[in-house]
Amino acid sequence: MKLHKMGAQKVKIGVLVFLSWAAIVAADVDCTTVAGLLSACSTFINYGSPDPLPGSPCCDAMTSLNSVAESGNNRSSVCRCFMGLITTYNPNATAIATLPGFCGISLGFVLDPNTDCTYSR
Fold first, then answer.
1. Which is nearest to 79 in space by CA: 61, 94, 97?
2. Helix axis angle, 31-38 relative to 74-88, nearest 10°?
3. What separation in angstroms does the CA of 38 have from each of 6, 9, 24, 41, 45?
4. Nearest by Cα to 105 from 75, 72, 73
5. Which of 58, 68, 78, 88: CA 20 to 30 A from 103?
6. Which band of pLDDT confidence, cut at 50, 70 and 90, is reported for residue 39?
7. From residue 25, how far is each of 32, 67, 70, 86, 98 by CA, in Å?
8. Distance in angstroms (rounded) separating the CA atoms of residues 69 and 65
9. How far is CA 104 from CA 20, 37, 66, 100, in A?
10. Alpha helices in the chain (DSSP H)
């Protein structure tokens, strides 16, 4: 009986994550959305470990972020938000920049201090 209950909780969580993702995609992307998704990676960003792996909450958030970036003209906005976070959290910039690679995702732009987000589409 306990396994059945846990399975139902996982389904509920999955539905909530999907609904949250759908709401994010439907709305204009702002940096609060990007920062919120990256918060799932806060342990790695702050401490450099453990490395995020595909299927982890951090990589699931990166996958959602990639989906947000792919919708409409959001890639430039997501790029600008990432660059702002890298500037703001300069000591952790390398950790932020390596997240897509750890998760096996290409955001369509390079996370580098010299990136021009104007052309990220």
1. 97
2. 60
3. 26, 24, 14, 5, 9
4. 75
5. 88
6. very high
7. 13, 8, 9, 23, 24
8. 6
9. 22, 16, 11, 6
10. 2-26, 31-38, 42-47, 57-70, 74-88, 93-102
pLDDT digits (tens, 9 = 90+) for 43-83: 999 998 889 999 999 999 999 999 988 876 788 889 989 88
The vertex-57 CA angle with 31 and 84, nearest 5°, equals: 20
With 0.90 as the threshold, say if the pTM is over it: no
* pLDDT digit string, tens, across residues 73-117: 788 889 989 888 888 888 888 898 899 999 999 988 888 777 888
User: 111 phi and psi, to 5 degrees?
Assistant: -90, 90
Which tokens sit at 22?
Answer: 């759908």
Cα–Cα distance measured from residue 9 to residue 5, given in angstroms and rounded to the nearest whole number: 6
